[in-house]
């Protein structure tokens, strides 16, 4: 089936999803494929991505390090060679270390910024030329409500998601006349491995990966600049930020314990994710050192 931008649906679309091996990315691949798209998932854990893709009809995978332009070039070339075009990019890959900012290792800071910010920029830069050539394309950058709402214990993560949102809004303006649309999706706390070891709920809105996946799919129709999940959070926070005095906000934050990502992390419950982050951080540092030597 040939994809048509005149009928904004996923049917017939060629979709690229980063960080697609697990969580939101894997669920988004399922949702797009069920809607008739052909999906390619890229992930730094290529074996896990391959296993995920094998369980989804019309889904393929390849290893992708979103922080590396060369990796992006190879990935995009493989998709274009097989499919001839890329209609939709979902920049979903992200990492979320938590804890005190002053204790954060430099390697961790580098990983957060390179994956969550550089990864988004690299992805857009990799697909925009082919989208401009074909006269149409849609990019969805998965940011976070942490891109609007500052949260203790997430200083660098907050910085990365504010940046992802800003990049999305700026790119949306820059490519508005080229047929390329850019949307940002901002989930609240999501029940995935990234939030493991942190108490969810208790006054903080929490969603499932399929809620986020469906919101991403809807942007194909709405082309909205910014979509929060749940939908009320972004406009609600905008009102709070504009109208509520800081002392009132502090009182409410204290009541719902907004410092839980700083003071109440269950390290045992987060152990698997922390081990994976540690492996990623070390591998990323080695790669960075290798580039510096060159």
From TrEMBL:
InterPro entries: KR_dom (IPR057326), NAD(P)-bd_dom_sf (IPR036291), SDR_fam (IPR002347)
A Pfam cross-reference name: adh_short
Keywords: Oxidoreductase
Keyword DNA repair on entry: no
Top-rank taxon: Bacteria
Signal peptide: none
Residue ranges annotated for the Ketoreductase domain, each copy included: 13-193
One MF term in the entry's GO annotations: oxidoreductase activity, acting on the CH-OH group of donors, NAD or NADP as acceptor
The keyword Oxidoreductase appears for this protein: yes
Family from the record: Belongs to the short-chain dehydrogenases/reductases (SDR) family.
Record-given protein name: Short-chain dehydrogenase/reductase SDR
């Amino acid at each position: 089936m040939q994809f048509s931008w005149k009928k904004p649906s996923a049917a017939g679309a060629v979709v690229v999803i980063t960080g697609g091996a697990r969580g939101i990315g894997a669920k988004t691949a399922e949702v797009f494929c069920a809607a008739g798209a052909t999906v390619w998932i890229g992930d730094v854990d290529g074996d896990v991505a391959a296993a995920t893709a094998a369980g989804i009809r019309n889904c393929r995978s390849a290893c992708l390090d979103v922080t590396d332009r060369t990796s992006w070039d190879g990935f995009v070339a493989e998709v274009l060679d097989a499919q001839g075009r890329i209609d939709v990019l979902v920049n979903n890959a992200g990492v979320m270390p938590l804890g005190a900012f002053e204790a954060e290792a430099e390697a961790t800071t580098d990983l957060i910024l390179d994956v969550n910010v550089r990864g988004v920029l690299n992805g857009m830069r990799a697909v925009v030329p082919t989208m401009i050539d074909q006269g149409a394309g849609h990019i969805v950058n998965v940011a976070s409500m942490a891109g609007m709402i500052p949260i203790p214990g997430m200083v660098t993560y907050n910085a990365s998601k504010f940046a992802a949102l800003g990049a999305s809004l700026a790119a949306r303006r820059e490519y508005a006349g080229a047929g390329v649309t850019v949307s940002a999706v901002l989930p609240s706390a999501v029940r995935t491995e990234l939030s493991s070891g942190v108490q969810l709920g208790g006054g903080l809105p929490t969603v499932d990966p399929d809620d986020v996946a469906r919101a991403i799919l809807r942007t194909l129709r709405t082309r909205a600049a910014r979509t929060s999940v749940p939908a009320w959070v972004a406009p609600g926070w905008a009102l709070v930020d504009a109208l509520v005095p800081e002392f009132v906000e502090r009182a409410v934050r204290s009541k719902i314990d907004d410092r839980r990502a700083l003071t109440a992390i269950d390290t045992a419950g987060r152990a698997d994710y922390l081990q994976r982050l540690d492996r990623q951080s070390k591998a990323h540092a080695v790669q960075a050192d290798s580039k510096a030597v060159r």
